[in-house]
Amino acid sequence: MRKTFKAIGYIFMALALLRVWFDFSATTLQDREFKLAETGAVWAGFHRESLLGLQPGVERYLAPWIWESVIAPILYTPLAPILVVMGVFFLIAGAAAPKLR
User: Fold this and answer.
1) In angstroms, rounded to a whole number, what is the distance separating the alpha carbons of residues 24 and 84?
2) Contacts of residue 12, Cβ cutoff 8 Å, sequence gap at least 6
3) pTM of the predicted model over 0.85
């Protein structure tokens, strides 16, 4: 199980580096200011309909405050730092537990 968590952690870290490289090449190399892409913008680029259906679903079946207080701020956060945090979480979860004597 630890090896699986470590592998997932490394995958998230690699995806974060790939996202930073992609954002760098999409902005700086085209003579624009460097900016990390927001999570919502990346999601909309892949599948806009699912992103547009998320808000009514959360507000209807869960609670409206969850959308405004939890999910919307995550969608406005750049994707690369979120991937790094997830990678660190899985790497820590996959680390060997200290042996107790």
Assistant:
1) 17
2) 83, 84, 86, 87, 90
3) no
Residue in 12, 84, 73 with CA at minimum distance from that of residue 40: 73
Instruction: Using alpha carbons only, give the angle 84, 22, 73 rounded to the nearest 5 degrees.
Output: 50
Question: What are residue 78's DSSP bridge partners?
Answer: 38
* CA distance to 34, 45, 73, 76, per residue, from 68 (Å): 28, 22, 7, 11
Q: How does pLDDT run across 5-47, given as a tens digit for each residue?
A: 999 999 999 999 999 999 888 888 777 888 888 999 999 999 9
Name residue, tokens 């959360």.
58
Q: Which residue's entry shows tokens 């998230």?
A: 12
Q: Which of 8-17, 36-45, 67-76, 92-101 has the lowest mean pLDDT?
A: 92-101
Residue 27 CA to residue 35 CA, distance in Å, equals 7
